[in-house]
Amino acid sequence: MSELDKALLPALQQRRDEKLYRQRAVVASPQQVNLLRDGQDLISFCSNDYLGLANHPDVIKAMQTAAGDFGVGSGASHLVSGHSLHHHQLEEELADFTGRERALLFSTGYMANVGVINALLGRKDAVFEDRLNHASLLDGGLISGAEFVRYRHNNMEDLAQRLVARGKNNRKLIVVDGVFSMDGDYAALPELSALAREHDAWLMVDDAHGLGCVGDSGRGSVEQFGLSHEDVPILMGTLGKAFGTFGAFVAGSETLIESLIQFARPYIYTTALPPAVAAATRASLKIIKQEPQHRHHLHRLIHLFKSTSASKGIELMPSDTAIQPVVVGESEKALALASGLQKRGYWVTAIRPPTVPKGSARLRVTLSAQHSEAQVVGLVEALAEALRHA
Ligand SMILES: *Cc1c(COP(=O)(O)O)cnc(C)c1O
Q: Do residues 55 and 30 touch, judged by C-beta distance below 8 A?
Protein backbone atom coordinates (compact mmCIF):
# COMPACT_ATOMS: atom_id res chain seq x y z
CA MET A 1 0.00 0.00 0.00
CA SER A 2 1.31 3.48 -0.86
CA GLU A 3 2.14 6.07 1.78
CA LEU A 4 -0.66 8.19 0.40
CA ASP A 5 -3.26 5.45 0.85
CA LYS A 6 -1.96 4.64 4.32
CA ALA A 7 -2.40 8.25 5.33
CA LEU A 8 -5.94 8.40 3.97
CA LEU A 9 -7.41 5.15 5.26
CA PRO A 10 -8.02 6.02 8.94
CA ALA A 11 -10.41 8.87 8.10
CA LEU A 12 -12.37 6.58 5.78
CA GLN A 13 -12.63 3.93 8.46
CA GLN A 14 -13.80 6.50 10.98
CA ARG A 15 -16.56 7.63 8.60
CA ARG A 16 -17.70 4.02 8.28
CA ASP A 17 -17.65 3.50 12.05
CA GLU A 18 -19.76 6.61 12.55
CA LYS A 19 -22.31 5.46 9.94
CA LEU A 20 -21.49 8.57 7.94
CA TYR A 21 -19.93 6.89 4.90
CA ARG A 22 -21.41 8.12 1.62
CA GLN A 23 -21.92 6.12 -1.53
CA ARG A 24 -23.26 6.91 -4.98
CA ALA A 25 -26.14 4.97 -6.48
CA VAL A 26 -26.05 4.56 -10.23
CA VAL A 27 -29.13 5.79 -12.07
CA ALA A 28 -29.78 4.20 -15.45
CA SER A 29 -32.83 6.25 -16.45
CA PRO A 30 -33.61 9.92 -16.98
CA GLN A 31 -34.06 12.04 -13.87
CA GLN A 32 -37.77 11.59 -13.24
CA VAL A 33 -40.14 10.20 -10.63
CA ASN A 34 -39.75 6.59 -11.83
CA LEU A 35 -36.05 5.83 -11.66
CA LEU A 36 -33.98 2.81 -12.41
CA ARG A 37 -31.43 2.68 -9.60
CA ASP A 38 -28.81 -0.07 -9.45
CA GLY A 39 -31.18 -2.32 -11.40
CA GLN A 40 -34.23 -1.62 -9.21
CA ASP A 41 -37.31 0.40 -10.24
CA LEU A 42 -38.00 3.03 -7.60
CA ILE A 43 -40.30 5.98 -7.10
CA SER A 44 -38.00 8.83 -6.27
CA PHE A 45 -38.76 11.32 -3.52
CA CYS A 46 -35.31 12.84 -3.24
CA SER A 47 -34.44 14.90 -6.28
CA ASN A 48 -34.55 18.70 -6.49
CA ASP A 49 -36.28 18.56 -9.85
CA TYR A 50 -39.34 20.11 -8.19
CA LEU A 51 -41.29 20.87 -11.36
CA GLY A 52 -40.34 17.77 -13.33
CA LEU A 53 -38.48 19.77 -15.99
CA ALA A 54 -35.22 17.78 -16.05
CA ASN A 55 -36.73 15.36 -18.54
CA HIS A 56 -39.37 17.61 -20.13
CA PRO A 57 -39.72 17.16 -23.92
CA ASP A 58 -39.56 20.93 -24.67
CA VAL A 59 -36.41 21.30 -22.60
CA ILE A 60 -34.77 18.29 -24.26
CA LYS A 61 -35.72 19.59 -27.69
CA ALA A 62 -34.27 23.04 -26.98
CA MET A 63 -31.00 21.47 -25.92
CA GLN A 64 -30.84 19.21 -28.97
CA THR A 65 -31.58 22.04 -31.36
CA ALA A 66 -29.03 24.35 -29.76
CA ALA A 67 -26.39 21.60 -29.78
CA GLY A 68 -27.02 21.27 -33.52
CA ASP A 69 -26.66 25.03 -34.03
CA PHE A 70 -23.95 25.88 -31.48
CA GLY A 71 -22.10 22.61 -30.87
CA VAL A 72 -21.39 21.25 -27.42
CA GLY A 73 -18.52 23.03 -25.69
CA SER A 74 -18.52 26.79 -25.13
CA GLY A 75 -14.79 26.76 -25.80
CA ALA A 76 -13.72 29.48 -23.36
CA SER A 77 -14.74 31.60 -20.41
CA HIS A 78 -17.39 34.31 -20.80
CA LEU A 79 -14.75 37.04 -20.93
CA VAL A 80 -12.81 35.39 -23.73
CA SER A 81 -14.98 33.91 -26.48
CA GLY A 82 -17.41 31.63 -24.61
CA HIS A 83 -20.35 34.04 -24.11
CA SER A 84 -22.91 32.88 -26.68
CA LEU A 85 -26.17 34.36 -27.85
CA HIS A 86 -28.08 31.80 -25.73
CA HIS A 87 -26.17 32.80 -22.59
CA HIS A 88 -26.84 36.45 -23.29
CA GLN A 89 -30.54 36.01 -23.98
CA LEU A 90 -31.00 33.79 -20.94
CA GLU A 91 -29.40 36.48 -18.77
CA GLU A 92 -31.82 39.08 -20.13
CA GLU A 93 -34.78 36.77 -19.56
CA LEU A 94 -33.67 35.98 -16.00
CA ALA A 95 -33.25 39.69 -15.24
CA ASP A 96 -36.76 40.27 -16.51
CA PHE A 97 -38.16 37.28 -14.57
CA THR A 98 -36.62 38.45 -11.29
CA GLY A 99 -37.43 42.12 -11.92
CA ARG A 100 -33.84 43.30 -11.72
CA GLU A 101 -31.65 45.37 -14.01
CA ARG A 102 -29.35 42.52 -14.89
CA ALA A 103 -28.50 38.88 -14.31
CA LEU A 104 -25.20 37.03 -14.68
CA LEU A 105 -24.83 33.32 -15.37
CA PHE A 106 -22.40 31.20 -13.35
CA SER A 107 -21.39 27.63 -14.13
CA THR A 108 -22.67 26.32 -10.77
CA GLY A 109 -24.43 27.66 -7.71
CA TYR A 110 -21.47 26.78 -5.56
CA MET A 111 -19.28 29.00 -7.73
CA ALA A 112 -21.84 31.81 -7.78
CA ASN A 113 -21.93 31.94 -3.98
CA VAL A 114 -18.16 31.82 -3.59
CA GLY A 115 -17.82 34.37 -6.39
CA VAL A 116 -20.28 36.94 -5.08
CA ILE A 117 -19.13 36.91 -1.47
CA ASN A 118 -15.48 37.14 -2.48
CA ALA A 119 -16.08 39.91 -5.00
CA LEU A 120 -17.85 41.99 -2.36
CA LEU A 121 -15.89 41.31 0.83
CA GLY A 122 -12.30 41.29 2.06
CA ARG A 123 -10.42 41.14 5.35
CA LYS A 124 -11.78 44.34 6.86
CA ASP A 125 -15.40 43.29 6.32
CA ALA A 126 -17.83 40.93 8.03
CA VAL A 127 -20.20 38.27 6.72
CA PHE A 128 -23.23 37.15 8.77
CA GLU A 129 -24.55 33.66 8.06
CA ASP A 130 -27.48 31.66 9.36
CA ARG A 131 -26.21 28.46 10.99
CA LEU A 132 -28.20 26.37 8.54
CA ASN A 133 -26.92 28.09 5.40
CA HIS A 134 -25.89 25.93 2.46
CA ALA A 135 -22.24 24.83 2.49
CA SER A 136 -21.44 26.97 -0.57
CA LEU A 137 -22.46 30.13 1.30
CA LEU A 138 -20.43 29.11 4.32
CA ASP A 139 -17.40 28.27 2.18
CA GLY A 140 -17.75 31.55 0.28
CA GLY A 141 -17.70 33.45 3.58
CA LEU A 142 -14.70 31.54 4.90
CA ILE A 143 -12.66 31.96 1.72
CA SER A 144 -13.29 35.73 1.65
CA GLY A 145 -11.19 36.29 4.76
CA ALA A 146 -13.92 38.58 6.15
CA GLU A 147 -14.84 38.18 9.79
CA PHE A 148 -17.09 35.12 9.73
CA VAL A 149 -20.14 35.41 11.98
CA ARG A 150 -22.78 32.68 12.29
CA TYR A 151 -26.08 33.35 14.02
CA ARG A 152 -28.71 30.96 15.36
CA HIS A 153 -31.18 29.72 12.78
CA ASN A 154 -33.68 32.45 11.87
CA ASN A 155 -32.99 34.15 15.20
CA MET A 156 -33.19 37.90 14.58
CA GLU A 157 -32.24 38.88 18.14
CA ASP A 158 -29.05 36.90 17.88
CA LEU A 159 -28.25 38.43 14.50
CA ALA A 160 -29.03 41.97 15.71
CA GLN A 161 -26.64 41.61 18.65
CA ARG A 162 -23.90 40.37 16.38
CA LEU A 163 -24.46 43.21 13.93
CA VAL A 164 -24.14 45.76 16.72
CA ALA A 165 -20.94 44.14 17.97
CA ARG A 166 -19.40 44.39 14.49
CA GLY A 167 -20.19 48.07 13.96
CA LYS A 168 -16.51 48.73 13.31
CA ASN A 169 -16.28 46.53 10.24
CA ASN A 170 -16.29 48.27 6.86
CA ARG A 171 -18.78 46.30 4.82
CA LYS A 172 -21.37 44.00 6.34
CA LEU A 173 -23.11 41.32 4.30
CA ILE A 174 -25.94 39.12 5.56
CA VAL A 175 -26.31 35.98 3.47
CA VAL A 176 -29.07 33.44 3.77
CA ASP A 177 -30.91 30.62 2.00
CA GLY A 178 -34.39 31.85 0.93
CA VAL A 179 -35.72 28.34 1.59
CA PHE A 180 -33.41 26.28 3.79
CA SER A 181 -32.19 23.31 1.80
CA MET A 182 -32.37 20.62 4.49
CA ASP A 183 -35.30 21.94 6.57
CA GLY A 184 -37.57 23.47 3.94
CA ASP A 185 -38.52 26.51 6.02
CA TYR A 186 -38.31 30.11 4.83
CA ALA A 187 -35.73 32.63 5.98
CA ALA A 188 -37.40 35.51 7.81
CA LEU A 189 -36.74 37.80 4.85
CA PRO A 190 -38.83 40.86 5.86
CA GLU A 191 -37.10 40.97 9.26
CA LEU A 192 -33.71 40.34 7.68
CA SER A 193 -34.12 43.17 5.20
CA ALA A 194 -35.22 45.53 7.99
CA LEU A 195 -32.19 44.57 10.09
CA ALA A 196 -29.89 45.01 7.12
CA ARG A 197 -31.23 48.55 6.60
CA GLU A 198 -30.94 49.42 10.24
CA HIS A 199 -27.32 48.27 10.46
CA ASP A 200 -26.08 49.41 7.04
CA ALA A 201 -25.60 45.82 5.94
CA TRP A 202 -26.35 44.30 2.54
CA LEU A 203 -28.66 41.31 2.15
CA MET A 204 -27.97 38.42 -0.22
CA VAL A 205 -30.54 35.66 -0.71
CA ASP A 206 -29.71 32.26 -2.23
CA ASP A 207 -33.07 31.14 -3.58
CA ALA A 208 -32.00 27.73 -4.93
CA HIS A 209 -35.14 26.09 -3.51
CA GLY A 210 -37.57 28.96 -3.88
CA LEU A 211 -37.30 30.07 -7.51
CA GLY A 212 -39.84 28.40 -9.76
CA CYS A 213 -41.67 26.87 -6.78
CA VAL A 214 -42.85 29.61 -4.45
CA GLY A 215 -44.40 33.04 -4.86
CA ASP A 216 -47.63 33.58 -6.81
CA SER A 217 -45.86 33.50 -10.15
CA GLY A 218 -42.90 31.29 -9.18
CA ARG A 219 -40.53 34.19 -8.71
CA GLY A 220 -39.33 32.74 -5.43
CA SER A 221 -39.17 33.68 -1.78
CA VAL A 222 -38.63 37.38 -2.52
CA GLU A 223 -42.01 37.37 -4.27
CA GLN A 224 -43.55 35.22 -1.54
CA PHE A 225 -42.82 37.99 0.98
CA GLY A 226 -43.60 40.85 -1.41
CA LEU A 227 -40.09 42.29 -1.17
CA SER A 228 -38.44 44.67 -3.59
CA HIS A 229 -35.07 44.86 -5.24
CA GLU A 230 -34.10 47.44 -2.59
CA ASP A 231 -34.98 44.97 0.18
CA VAL A 232 -32.91 42.17 -1.37
CA PRO A 233 -30.26 43.78 -3.57
CA ILE A 234 -28.38 40.51 -4.23
CA LEU A 235 -30.39 37.54 -5.45
CA MET A 236 -28.82 34.24 -6.39
CA GLY A 237 -30.66 31.35 -8.04
CA THR A 238 -29.68 27.91 -9.27
CA LEU A 239 -30.79 26.27 -12.50
CA GLY A 240 -30.20 22.63 -11.54
CA LYS A 241 -33.27 22.44 -9.28
CA ALA A 242 -36.73 23.69 -10.29
CA PHE A 243 -35.39 24.73 -13.70
CA GLY A 244 -34.30 21.13 -14.29
CA THR A 245 -31.06 22.03 -16.10
CA PHE A 246 -27.69 23.15 -14.75
CA GLY A 247 -25.88 26.30 -13.68
CA ALA A 248 -26.79 29.35 -11.64
CA PHE A 249 -27.20 33.11 -11.81
CA VAL A 250 -27.00 36.26 -9.76
CA ALA A 251 -29.48 39.08 -10.36
CA GLY A 252 -29.22 42.68 -9.23
CA SER A 253 -28.30 46.19 -10.29
CA GLU A 254 -26.20 47.06 -13.29
CA THR A 255 -23.37 48.07 -10.95
CA LEU A 256 -23.51 44.83 -8.96
CA ILE A 257 -23.36 42.71 -12.12
CA GLU A 258 -20.53 44.77 -13.63
CA SER A 259 -18.61 44.37 -10.36
CA LEU A 260 -19.05 40.60 -10.51
CA ILE A 261 -17.88 40.50 -14.12
CA GLN A 262 -14.73 42.37 -13.09
CA PHE A 263 -14.00 40.77 -9.71
CA ALA A 264 -15.75 37.39 -9.19
CA ARG A 265 -12.94 34.91 -9.79
CA PRO A 266 -15.18 31.81 -10.14
CA TYR A 267 -16.93 33.73 -12.93
CA ILE A 268 -13.80 34.88 -14.68
CA TYR A 269 -11.60 31.80 -14.49
CA THR A 270 -13.92 29.07 -15.68
CA THR A 271 -15.35 27.82 -18.93
CA ALA A 272 -18.84 29.08 -19.76
CA LEU A 273 -21.69 26.57 -19.57
CA PRO A 274 -22.43 24.79 -22.84
CA PRO A 275 -24.67 27.14 -24.86
CA ALA A 276 -27.19 24.30 -25.28
CA VAL A 277 -27.63 24.19 -21.50
CA ALA A 278 -28.50 27.89 -21.59
CA ALA A 279 -30.93 27.22 -24.45
CA ALA A 280 -32.55 24.38 -22.46
CA THR A 281 -32.88 26.71 -19.47
CA ARG A 282 -34.64 29.29 -21.63
CA ALA A 283 -37.19 26.59 -22.47
CA SER A 284 -37.66 25.77 -18.75
CA LEU A 285 -38.07 29.43 -17.89
CA LYS A 286 -40.79 29.69 -20.51
CA ILE A 287 -42.63 26.76 -18.92
CA ILE A 288 -42.24 28.25 -15.45
CA LYS A 289 -43.72 31.54 -16.68
CA GLN A 290 -46.51 30.13 -18.84
CA GLU A 291 -47.64 26.98 -17.01
CA PRO A 292 -48.49 27.70 -13.37
CA GLN A 293 -50.37 24.39 -13.17
CA HIS A 294 -47.15 22.51 -12.32
CA ARG A 295 -46.52 24.77 -9.34
CA HIS A 296 -50.17 24.52 -8.27
CA HIS A 297 -50.08 20.72 -8.44
CA LEU A 298 -46.85 20.72 -6.39
CA HIS A 299 -48.55 22.79 -3.70
CA ARG A 300 -51.53 20.44 -3.62
CA LEU A 301 -49.09 17.54 -3.11
CA ILE A 302 -47.27 19.37 -0.30
CA HIS A 303 -50.60 19.85 1.45
CA LEU A 304 -51.57 16.22 0.87
CA PHE A 305 -48.23 14.94 2.18
CA LYS A 306 -48.54 17.02 5.33
CA SER A 307 -52.15 16.13 6.07
CA THR A 308 -51.66 12.40 5.36
CA SER A 309 -48.53 12.32 7.52
CA ALA A 310 -50.38 14.06 10.35
CA SER A 311 -53.18 11.48 10.16
CA LYS A 312 -50.58 8.70 10.52
CA GLY A 313 -48.82 10.39 13.42
CA ILE A 314 -45.65 11.14 11.44
CA GLU A 315 -43.92 14.20 12.80
CA LEU A 316 -42.72 16.73 10.23
CA MET A 317 -40.80 20.00 10.32
CA PRO A 318 -42.62 23.34 10.02
CA SER A 319 -42.16 23.50 6.24
CA ASP A 320 -44.63 24.61 3.56
CA THR A 321 -42.28 23.91 0.67
CA ALA A 322 -41.40 20.89 -1.47
CA ILE A 323 -38.73 19.97 1.10
CA GLN A 324 -40.40 17.89 3.83
CA PRO A 325 -37.80 16.32 6.13
CA VAL A 326 -38.57 13.57 8.60
CA VAL A 327 -35.98 14.06 11.34
CA VAL A 328 -35.09 10.86 13.20
CA GLY A 329 -31.88 11.81 15.06
CA GLU A 330 -29.31 9.03 14.76
CA SER A 331 -27.59 8.40 11.43
CA GLU A 332 -28.04 4.65 11.78
CA LYS A 333 -31.78 5.02 12.15
CA ALA A 334 -32.01 7.30 9.12
CA LEU A 335 -30.12 4.70 7.07
CA ALA A 336 -32.38 1.90 8.29
CA LEU A 337 -35.47 3.90 7.36
CA ALA A 338 -34.10 4.70 3.91
CA SER A 339 -33.43 1.02 3.28
CA GLY A 340 -36.89 0.11 4.62
CA LEU A 341 -38.40 2.51 2.09
CA GLN A 342 -36.22 1.14 -0.68
CA LYS A 343 -37.58 -2.36 0.02
CA ARG A 344 -41.06 -0.90 -0.44
CA GLY A 345 -40.09 0.71 -3.76
CA TYR A 346 -39.33 4.29 -2.70
CA TRP A 347 -36.10 6.23 -2.86
CA VAL A 348 -35.60 8.82 -0.15
CA THR A 349 -32.03 9.63 0.89
CA ALA A 350 -30.83 9.67 4.47
CA ILE A 351 -29.16 13.01 5.13
CA ARG A 352 -26.55 12.83 7.87
CA PRO A 353 -23.93 15.07 9.50
CA PRO A 354 -21.97 17.08 8.48
CA THR A 355 -24.67 18.09 5.98
CA VAL A 356 -27.06 18.55 8.93
CA PRO A 357 -26.20 19.20 12.61
CA LYS A 358 -25.21 16.21 14.78
CA GLY A 359 -28.18 14.29 16.16
CA SER A 360 -30.54 15.54 13.44
CA ALA A 361 -30.10 12.89 10.74
CA ARG A 362 -33.20 12.74 8.60
CA LEU A 363 -34.99 11.49 5.57
CA ARG A 364 -35.20 14.45 3.23
CA VAL A 365 -38.44 13.89 1.36
CA THR A 366 -38.81 16.15 -1.67
CA LEU A 367 -41.96 16.43 -3.73
CA SER A 368 -42.20 17.07 -7.44
CA ALA A 369 -45.00 18.29 -9.67
CA GLN A 370 -44.53 14.98 -11.50
CA HIS A 371 -45.74 12.91 -8.55
CA SER A 372 -49.34 11.74 -8.50
CA GLU A 373 -51.51 12.03 -5.40
CA ALA A 374 -51.56 8.22 -5.18
CA GLN A 375 -47.75 8.12 -5.13
CA VAL A 376 -47.62 10.63 -2.28
CA VAL A 377 -50.17 8.67 -0.23
CA GLY A 378 -48.25 5.48 -1.02
CA LEU A 379 -45.04 7.02 0.26
CA VAL A 380 -46.65 8.14 3.53
CA GLU A 381 -48.05 4.64 4.10
CA ALA A 382 -44.65 3.07 3.44
CA LEU A 383 -43.02 5.64 5.71
CA ALA A 384 -45.43 4.87 8.54
CA GLU A 385 -44.69 1.14 8.17
CA ALA A 386 -40.93 1.67 7.97
CA LEU A 387 -41.09 3.87 11.09
CA ARG A 388 -42.99 1.14 12.97
CA HIS A 389 -40.30 -1.41 12.07
CA ALA A 390 -37.33 0.86 12.82
C1 LIG B 1 -27.81 23.24 -4.63
C2 LIG B 1 -27.52 24.49 -3.89
C3 LIG B 1 -26.44 25.30 -4.24
C4 LIG B 1 -25.42 24.87 -5.25
O5 LIG B 1 -25.89 24.95 -6.54
P6 LIG B 1 -25.20 24.05 -7.67
O7 LIG B 1 -25.62 24.68 -8.93
O8 LIG B 1 -25.72 22.67 -7.48
O9 LIG B 1 -23.72 24.14 -7.44
C10 LIG B 1 -26.28 26.51 -3.59
N11 LIG B 1 -27.14 26.89 -2.62
C12 LIG B 1 -28.17 26.12 -2.23
C13 LIG B 1 -29.07 26.60 -1.15
C14 LIG B 1 -28.39 24.90 -2.84
O15 LIG B 1 -29.37 24.12 -2.44
A: yes
